[in-house]
Specification:
Number of domains: 2
Distance between the termini: 96 Å
Radius of gyration: 24 Å
Shape: globular
Number of strands: 20
Strand order of the largest sheet: 4-1-3-16-19-20
Structural class: alpha+beta
Helix content: 25-40%
Number of helices: 8
Strand content: 25-35%
CATH topology of the largest domain: Ribosomal Protein S5, domain 2
CATH architecture of the largest domain: 2-Layer Sandwich
Length: 345
């Protein structure tokens, strides 16, 4: 009887080992999340209203596609793709959050973002808009941060170092004015709208952000408490299933163009990202490299980049104009519309 050659046994053994390794790598999680360029959307497709005019050009919303609990095999593939970033999962989301809680928080962030964009656009156009409700809710406490033992879930922060804050994006703006290790004084309402409601003045020490290394944070999951306003115009924005606050800047630009007699886009394909606060400040977002790559892939003429994300944006190896923006005014200056004063009609 003929014997099987030794080399066949060796190859078979190696194949077995390789198969087991691939199987292990396919299911073993790394504790990382991955981000790749996502779809690019025309914001006008999300906006409806009798007073909304058509755009002469395109205003683009940029997105990323995240993958959480990345396996070893997925991480290896991601590491070979320069358009994909791997980030520690704990820097992306609160470890105490469930998938459902995280998704809900992101949807709420988008809802506040589009409402704030409408407020800012209407204010620039000269409408008399009164804000109702103020405060930043404490939705979760992050371990090993300055919030532990100071804040409680359910607290509402109404001022930071004497500056009123009406939504969590404004709180971020005030926090970023400081350095890691600085102390902040918070005006807090505890047990709000109950018989035990009390106003407190608390001091917290800033720690390094778990999401943006090198930037400060207090250490709590934030939301917006009862923030809103009565809009004097008939406008509706359908956010679909898109979450997060990063479309605020581009929503604002789109509404300014649609609700005014000014032609901001002037036939251009304009992309951008960044949260927007009630004062027109543009805040940092995640996935900037992937968003710049997505804008270039879609043929945009320019990308507006929040100042806080400027350095990271340079890592996108694509040929496209980047414009640094700190406030909505910076974007309007590039668009050639520094003084928007004429409402449509």
């Amino acid at each position: 009887m003929r014997r099987v050659p030794n080399w066949v046994w060796a190859v078979g053994f190696l194949a077995l080992i390789l198969g087991a390794a691939v199987g292990w790598a396919s299911f073993s999680e790394t504790g990382y999340a991955s981000f790749r360029p996502g779809p690019v959307y025309e914001i006008a497709d999300f906006v409806e209203g009798e007073q909304a005019t058509e755009l002469n050009g395109e205003a683009l919303m940029l997105t990323v596609v995240p993958s959480y609990d990345v396996t070893v095999l997925e991480a290896l593939w991601a590491d070979l793709n320069p358009a994909v970033d791997l980030i520690e999962l704990e820097r992306v989301r609160n470890p105490a959050e469930s998938d459902e809680d995280y998704a809900e928080r992101q949807r709420n962030n988008m809802a506040v973002s589009k409402e704030t964009a409408e407020y800012v656009a209407l204010a620039i156009l000269g409408y008399d808009v009164t804000v109702e409700g103020e405060g930043v809710t404490v939705d979760a406490i992050l371990p090993e941060t300055g919030a532990v033992g100071v804040l409680e879930v359910g607290d509402v922060v109404v001022a930071i170092d004497g500056i009123p804050v009406t939504q969590h994006l404004e709180a971020i703006t005030e926090i970023y004015k400081n350095d890691i290790g600085d102390e902040l004084e918070l005006a807090v309402v505890r047990n709000i709208e109950t018989d035990e409601e009390e106003e407190l003045t608390l001091t917290v020490t800033l720690v390094e952000s778990t999401v943006e290394p090198g930037r400060p944070m207090i250490g709590f999951g934030a939301g917006t408490y009862a923030w809103g306003f009565e809009s004097p115009v008939d406008i509706e924005i359908d956010q679909g299933n898109i979450g997060g606050p990063s479309a605020g800047l581009m929503y604002t630009i789109t509404l300014l163009d649609m609700l005014s007699d000014d032609d901001l886009l002037d036939g251009r394909k304009v992309a951008g990202t960044g949260s927007i606060d009630r004062n027109g400040g543009v805040g940092a977002i995640g996935g900037i490299k992937q968003k710049v790559i997505g804008a270039a892939r879609d043929g945009a003429d320019v990308v507006f980049v929040p100042e806080a994300n400027w350095e990271k944006a340079q890592e996108a190896d694509v040929d496209i104009e980047l414009v640094k923006v700190t406030t909505i005014d910076d974007a309007l200056e590039w668009l050639g519309a520094d003084e928007l004063i004429s409402a449509a009609g």
